[in-house]
Each structure stands twice: as C-alpha cells, then as structure tokens.
Amino acid sequence: MKLDHLAIFLAFLYLQCYVWADSSSEEDSSSDEDQNEALLVEDPEFDLLIFTQRWPITACYEWREKSPDHICGLPSAQNIWTIHGIWPTKLNTIGPSFCNKTAVFNVTELDPIEKQLEQFWINVEKNKPYDSLWRHEWLKHGTCAAAVMVQLNTEDKYFGQGLTWLQQHSMADVLGEGGIKPGQNYTVLEIRQVLIDRLQKNMAIECYHDKETKQQFLNEIRVCFNKNLELENCDGILFEDVFIDQPQGKIITNCNVNKPVFYPATVPLSRYEKTHMSPFDLHTKFLEEYKRQKAKENKNMKILVNIYKLIQLLKWSTM
C-alpha cells in the first residue's frame, strides 16, 4: 500500500514540474497577476502615494502593438491625460499591494462619479471589461491606501481623489503651459524642467520603447504625494534613476536621455497595420495558432499517458 502511495506521489510531482515549466512560457495576463500577487501577505504601511497619469495616445499604441485584435477606448475629449492609478509605495521598494484579501470591488459604489471616470480614468484596453482597470487598481492599490488613510478608505474616496488631483495637476495643462505640445519630439531634460518649473517637485517620467522602430514615446508621468495629500518629491521610489549633473539633482526615468522623446498627437500605425495583413494572411495566422494549440494538447495527452504507464509499472513492481 505504501508503495502505491509512493507511485502516485511521484507521478504527481512529475505532473507538477511539467505544468510549472509549461506555464512559465506563457505570457502573463492581468488576471493571472492579480491572482498570484493576491496570495502574498502585505504590510499596508507606505511612505508615498504615486499618482500616475498616462498619455492615452501612447497607451493605445502600446496596447495595439501586442495583438492585431486589440482595440482602444479613448476619451472623447482631445489632448487630455488620463489616470492610471494611485499607488501606495514604500521608498526603495515596490508595493505594498493587495492588502485586503477579502475585499471585493463594487462598481455601483462609483455611480456618483462613474461618468467622470469613464472619461478621465478610462480603460484604454477596450477588449477588456469596461470596469476592469478600476477593479484592478482598487484591489491591488486601493485596499492598501484604505488600510492606512481615512481619506481614501472607500472606493468613492479613492477614485474621487484621483479625479481631484487630475483637475489640479493635469499633465495636459502642466506640459502645455510649458510649451510641450503633442506631435513633437523633446528631450527628457526639457520635459523634466517644465515639470519642476510648474510643480516644484521631482517626478518620474516613463517612456514606451518601440522595439521595432527603436523610437521612445512619452507614456506616463508619476506625481508623488505624502499622506497629507500634499505634493512631494518622488526621490526614492523604485524606478530607473539616471543621474545628471544639474543643481536639481537626478532625473527619475526609464527614458534614454540621449534620444528624443516623441509626444504623439495621434495613435501611430501598429506593426500589424503597417504590414497590411490581408484576410488570407489573417486566416493563415489563425491556422498556425490553431495548430500550435493542438500540438500543445497532444503533448499534454502524451504526458498524461506516460504518467498512467508509470503508475501501472510501479504498481506491477510491488505485486
């Protein structure tokens, strides 16, 4: 009997190793990320709140570059920056996140401000449910803010604060007043100087890097606040720091400071649109994907058959 149990246990380990190796090759999805990170136990304490604004034109381009099936949801008003999230953050590390394992997202709590959120906290990735970004941001980041700050301890307060900050510190206004307009190239130093001149704080500048064209696009700007909801320097947040010889200190960015940063006025053509794939090409691509999936299923079946044979062999050897 003990050997029977050993056989089953060995087979189980074999299957687990295969599943782990196979799953590691798959592309991560936001739902997988939520499920995996939600298993972690987090201390909700933090030092700063990172208020991240995104340029929806670049966000859309990045989304469409990932698949020919991806479509974008863009705000109806032009030249507005939208909200990505409010992220409680410990200095020199990432997180906390998912601080309340029993929390649920109730979109009806946002009824009073939902119309504003649809415009200014829009989910650019339109293939996903319209409230999926709000759900993700609340469960991952909002629960940590709510655990520490009364000012942000409900969905309505958390998302409402984002709308307030956007109205006060919209990057469309901040950059526009400094002469940074869509449709042009700028240096990282030019963008940073405008931010410092207008807000008197050091912020993080995030670029999207196009692997095909080697071009970099202005994507996000991260503004930091303390727990009194006052503007604060972002120095110390975990991001790629590029040190420069200036009185203001360092620039916080993942952009290449030696290359121009394009601030697009319209969504560039994706690599799929550039290739002008015909219906025949799309059909061929579908068939290739189908064959790949079938090959994977056949491989899984062979693994299961081998496991079954292993169990039978081990049982026979104990008779």
Automatic annotation (TrEMBL):
Protein name: Uncharacterized protein
The family this protein is said to belong to: Belongs to the RNase T2 family.
Gene3D superfamilies documented for this protein: Ribonuclease T2-like
Keyword entries, A-Z: Disulfide bond, Signal
Top-level taxon: Eukaryota
Entry-linked PANTHER family: RIBONUCLEASE T2
Signal peptide: 1-21
Transmembrane segments: none
Gene source species: Aedes albopictus
Pfam families in UniProt: Ribonuclease_T2 (PF00445)
